[in-house]
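look at this fold:
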Amino acid sequence: QVQLVESGGGLVQAGGSLRLSCAASGRTFSSYAMGWFRQAPGKEREFVAAISWRGGSTYYADSVKGRFTISRDNAKNTVYLQMNSLKSEDTAVYYCAADLKSGPRSSSRIYVDEYDYWGQGTQVTVSS
């Protein structure tokens, strides 16, 4: 079992920055990959970024590449999503998710059903 709790969402102006955090508990944090997804009103949940067990491999959706950075601190059981140059289209509920099936170097799972555990989500609103 893995429990995930996101934090750090809020209201920000376009062009601004936010850093989301996701605190994990349960299974040893350094033994599974993590991902961030988001869901805007009326839309399906979509992949944002993923990171391998120890952070050596990352993968991003094209829409956020160059603006968002995923990282993790295994000593703190936390994964982060640094979001810069935010746009109104980044407005969504952001979810972190745990992937317990990938190998230690994998960070390329992009589908919702490939992840095993989910947080409750944190709202990010970007005003234009």
Remarks:
- The CA atoms of residues 4 and 119 lie 5 Å apart.
